[in-house]
Amino acid sequence: MEKKIKLGVFGARRGSHLGGIANQVGFEMVALCDTFEPLLMSAKKRMNNDKITYYTDFDKMLEHDIDAVIIANYATEHVWAVIKALNAGKHVMSECMAMFTMAEAVQLVEAVEASNKVYMFAENYPFSAPNQEMTRLYRAGEIGDFKYGEGEYIHPINPEEMAGLMSGPDHWRAWLPITYYCTHSMGPVMLITGTRPTQVTGFVIPYDDKDTMNFGRAKFNDSSSVLMCRMDNDALVKIIPWSELRDHGNRVRICGNKGTMEASQQDGRLRVHHEAFDFEPPRTNTVHYMPNFPDFARQAFRYGHGGGDFFTNYYFHKAIAENSKPIIDVYMAIDMTAIGILGYRSALAGGIPMEIPDFRDKAVREKYRNDDWNPNPALHREGMPLPSVRGKIELKKESLDKFNELRKKFVDEL
């Protein structure tokens, strides 16, 4: 029997979920860390596993007998934890986002290159059944050469749910610019087509103080955004990062010069369309069908994000066990995250196109080595952006009072 890879997890909410799945694909979760002790103790009670040691100190967890770490702490604070884990000799899978600043991107790529360890980015949406099927079809030449794509991640969160996800106005979900959480949208397009973004132009729909959903959420970032990206094969891609529009779902559309394919947000059916004049003899114009996972992974349907959480763990384990290149490596992680950071710069500058640097080229990194431009209000200084294109947003007292009431209820129930 193959020896299991010992795993530590940083982040008791999202991380405990991923750690439980990791146990199904060849890992053994033996340590869990979170700096918020009530959440950690809640996870301990829920998991009921005496083989797991629980920590509130990340450095102490790294001293545990582990081979690999899943980083699932705050989305804006992954890089320091990834670097510590790599320096401690651990393989790492990092949740989204890959980095918070372009300077962090330089630190991240150089730490991975120096480590001789696996770094896998846990972007999960490319691995839904429809998106994996589109990857297969594209590589088989089903729609010809990639010309245009769309990726959307629309997910409004009501005040009750938000109170369980954020601690208050200082939490990253309260202030993160609406372009930043973009990898769920760009990730599938990149994995399906094998292309990378080279340029981004950003547009933002500003914060709406008349939106009733904002009452009781303690959030002061904007409502939605669109990123237009030029890819390295000259295709264009329209990206809607995490959005507060009234809808739900992850939509991906891929258009080639011999056909188009996209999945339904309603039921996951795949639509593949061809024009008869592109084929001799003419073929069926449009087919609809429900794609499936490979036989070895049918259980992926039981797990989160359309099965994607299973596959990120599966591919992380595969890369470690085979000492092979991970399916989403550090360079791809930086590419798909950078469009959100640089897209916000573009939006604030009136939609000026911004270059997406390729950090595979070491010389390119120097321009960004000290680029710590970021919208964190706690770090704000002259030359730094605010979280909204409208500038400073003042939250109303009654809205904050409502949030605090909902948050207390959540904490009391842990």
Topology:
Elements: E1 5-10, H1 14-22, E2 27-33, H2 37-47, E3 53-55, H3 58-62, E4 68-71, H4 78-87, E5 91-94, H5 102-115, E6 119-121, H6 129-139, E7 146-154, H7 159-165, H8 172-175, H9 183-193, E8 197-205, E9 224-231, E10 236-243, E11 249-256, E12 259-263, E13 270-273, E14 286-289, H10 308-322, H11 330-348, E15 354-355, H12 397-413
Parallel strand pairs: 1-2, 1-4, 2-3, 4-5, 5-6, 7-10
Antiparallel strand pairs: 7-11, 8-9, 8-15, 9-10, 11-12, 12-13, 13-14
Helix pairs in contact: 4-5, 5-11, 6-9, 7-12, 9-11
Strand content: 15-25%
Radius of gyration: 21 Å
CATH fold-level assignment of the largest domain: Dihydrodipicolinate Reductase, domain 2
Q: What is the percent of helical residues?
A: 25-40%
Largest sheet: 9 strands, mixed
CATH class of the largest domain: Alpha Beta
Q: Helical element count?
A: 12
Number of strands: 15
Point out poorly predicted stretches. Answer: none
Overall mean pLDDT stands at: 94
Strand order of the largest sheet: 14-13-12-11-7-10-9-8-15
The H-level CATH homologous superfamily of the largest domain, spelled out, is Dihydrodipicolinate Reductase, domain 2
CATH architecture of the largest domain: 2-Layer Sandwich
